[in-house]
Amino acid sequence: MASKLLRAVVLGPPGSGKGTVCERIARSFGLQHLSSGQFLRESLGGGGEAGVLAQQYLERGLLVPDHVITRVMVTELEKRREQPWLLDGFPRTLGQAKALDAICELDLVISLNIPFETLKDRLSARWVHPASGRVYNMDFNPPHTQGVDDLTGEPLVQREEDKPEAVAARLRKYKDAAKPVIELYKSRGILYSFSGTETNKIWPYVYSLLSSRIPPILPDEEH
């Protein structure tokens, strides 16, 4: 039965195209796209306890730990108890999935399965604008001028974690953490997996799945 309060999650390793898929779902179905990266950046500027904690890790070049991300996300989701939404980048671990269970019931989990070599190539070609989080890929989404952000003209950086030598370890770490999350949602019968190397080829199947749950506000676009 289609729920007006549809709560969905998109899971996938770094470089899998989660952000792109979420943007298309948000546009086509009118769902709020809630990104853990966006909330984390906003919490850094907000001066709250979780933001201050996160800043301490980032300043030392460390990944923000599970419990800090969980606190940021739970705070934001508590504000949206009566709204439909689409989560991107959370939960990444079983601990985060259990924290999410405590505040809502998910209707749908989409898992993107992309071959390891494709992910490695995509991530190594990825550069970001630190202030906004805008991501560029030198192969298929390059900036207008090499090395600078399209909107601000500020320099782009390649994050340490996107450098080729760091990518393989990062993908292994994601896989280990995500496996019990995927198993949990699979056991509940709400997990739908999509495999491929191109977002444009996966998208029609994702659109069809969502259309069976809620009415689209836009027809399937030619992307």
Set out the fold topology:
Elements: E1 7-11, H1 18-29, E2 32-35, H2 36-46, H3 49-59, H4 66-78, E3 85-88, H5 94-101, E4 108-113, H6 116-124, E5 126-129, E6 134-137, H7 164-187, E7 191-195, H8 199-211
Parallel strand pairs: 1-3, 1-4, 2-3, 4-7
Antiparallel strand pairs: 5-6
Helix pairs in contact: 1-8, 2-3, 2-4, 3-4, 4-5, 6-7
List the total number of helices: 8
Give the overall shape.
globular
Indicate the multimeric state: single chain
Give average pLDDT, whole number: 88
Number-wise, the strands total 7
User: What distance separates the N and C termini?
Assistant: 29 Å
Task: Specify Rg, calculated over alpha carbons.
Answer: 17 Å
Residue share in β-strands: 5-15%
Which runs of at least 5 residues are low in confidence (pLDDT < 50)? none
Structural class call reads: alpha/beta
Order of strands in the sheet with the most strands?
2-3-1-4-7
* Order of SSEs: EHEHHHEHEHEEHEH
Mind describing the biggest β-sheet? 5 strands, parallel
Helix content estimate: 40-55%
List keywords for this structure.
223 residues; alpha/beta; 5-stranded parallel beta sheet; two-stranded antiparallel sheet; 45% helix; globular
Task: Write structural notes for this entry.
Helices cover 45% and strands 14% of the residues. The chain has 223 residues and is an alpha/beta fold. A 5-stranded parallel β-sheet has the order 2-3-1-4-7, with helices on both faces. Strand 5 (126-129) and strand 6 form a beta hairpin. Helix 2 packs across helix 3 (49-59) and helix 3 (49-59) packs antiparallel against helix 4 (66-78). The radius of gyration is 17 Å and the shape is globular.
